[in-house]
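We store sequence with structure; for instance:
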Amino acid sequence: MSELKYCQGPECHTYYTQDRLKGIKGSKTYQTRRRSNLMWNEFCDQRCMYDWFRKHGTRAVDHFGRLTEAKHLTEENAWVKTYDWNSNDDRVYVYHNAITKERRSITEEQYNDNNYTLNT
């Protein structure tokens, strides 16, 4: 069995749901949810995720790197892996350039390889 993790939502314990109500009769309290598999990474639901971001979002963005200038999609960085279906209902894997609309065939292994890039 996997280890239970606590939801990281700062207000998780304040939401009145049956699965948060814990304790013996007469001294029950609402508690932070524990899950073996948290649906939203570290949070039990979107409400808790948004609570955390409202409280810590600005500090997190400043810590991990705030954008200071606009990013641009160019012909060189517009390549994405995708696939189509052929007439036999088989996948056809391609690299597609979102700007030039150029398409280059790749293998399934290349498609599944997260480190694979085109030799342009």
